[in-house]
Amino acid sequence: MIGADGLSPAVIKEADAALNSHGLIKIRALVDDRQARDAMLHSLAEELSAAPIQHIGKLLVLWRPMLAKEKKVDEDRKPGPREVKILKQTRPGQRPEVKILKVMGNQRLTPGGKIKRAKKPTQRSVKKTGAR
Question: What is the pTM of this model?
Fold first, then answer.
């Protein structure tokens, strides 16, 4: 909101922070003069390198494209739970029953639609394999 002080550095700083986080913002100007509001809109757009979108009454709308956020990738992270839809036929001629199951990372889904724990690889005895 732009008050009686006009475009103060605090207003510009807050508008810049809002554009960084949202991209499209509305600012209410409490100035009665239309030309003054229009000048505020264009000076804000120029200072913040944003596009002036609208000026309706005392509402000013600014837009600036948002920067792409970097996603942190953790290679040690294992897959989390996932939701699986299972269609189960009840009777011929009727719609199949839909079940949504949550399958955890250490579980697997059998062809029959049941959830079982994942099989661990069995350890082989060194003596039985003959490896030395």
Answer: 0.53
